[in-house]
Specification:
The protein is 38% helix and 11% strand. It is an alpha/beta fold and 400 residues long. The chain has a 4-stranded parallel beta sheet, sandwiched between helices. A two-stranded antiparallel sheet has the order 3-4. Strands 7-8 form a two-stranded antiparallel ribbon.
Amino acid sequence: MDPGIKYDELAYGTQHGFASVGSNNGHNGTTALTMYQNPDVVKDFAWRAIRVATIAGKKLIKKFYHHSHKKAYFLGCSLGGRQGINAANVFPGDFDGIIAGSPALDFNNLQSSRARFFTITGSNTSSHFIPKSTWKGLIHDEVLKQCDGLDGVLDGIIEDPNRCQFQPEALLCNQHCGIGTDCLTEQQVSIVRQIFSPYYREDGALIYPAMQPGSEIKAADLLYAGVPFSNSDEWFKYVVYTPSTWNASLFTTHDAITADALNPSNIRTWPSSLSAFKARGGKLILYHGGQDDKITSFNTERFYKHLTSGMQSSPSEMDDFLRFFRIPGMGHCNSGPGAWVFGESGGPSAAGVPFTAEQNVLAAMVRWVEEGEAVDGILGTKFVDDDVGKGVDHQRWHYK
């Protein structure tokens, strides 16, 4: 349920002159066991830990430097992205600028969506199970065959997953193709079709959007591996239900409805307005990789539309405080065949791009907050084998 304090992110901040604070969300991030019958830990995980860390950090800065901070920034991805959106909504005065990547929004339904995959794929010992090698080879190759060239360029990247209406029936075994590694059975085609379809309740209400084609290259490692996905499995086992009443193989939409109705410590995070954050002059940069293998990018697009509708604002009016960047070919918070490095996180990759508003999203946020100059595009970089030492493979601009 999140690995804990990310020291590379702390180092990234201090390297560029920021006094940096991190949190493990109040628990051992390797398991949700600590949340079992412990609402205080659930509350820490949902919102309180990051809130307390922010307050404490500001007090420590004042005591150490003998003056208050000038501006406060938030940088997070996945669960961190959700926390950034929640801060903008519930504590709009905490941060002047928030960078939220691949956010785990509509959290309860996200966990339900991922719990459902095990009921779709079946156990990895079942006769119809699709092994990783087939997802990464036969299926991914067919996805690229059908959708890679939609933008006019064959580069192994699906520019806009919305345009990819993948037809898995093209892989169906027939009388000219025996069942084997080069085709799928009818049941396997059905599995693929369900994976790439939105998840609905019986009454037709959307629970969560579909996974985007192209993401299977890494999603097969965890989400489609024929075992329960650990994050969702433990959320239901230790927070929604109890270990004795939870059975991942029996998950249904009833469980999804139950989890969202329970909404532990209001973790959902699905605001329809960030008006208070906007009114105080806050700035938000939202980004999501088009090949995200853990949280579909379609949900962040859905959130942007939800927010635009709730605030009764046009995209140009939203631009006053929010910029949304779609990053083609980027996986979950990092990696992928696309130009995914743009200063969105610490670690070795961050050292490969200059700290400028044109190539680094944190620098772009600082300029927007402190100089009033918003960013319309960021130059992303892909390094050879994702190794800065091997040089640049390609670069491309990502526009809002």
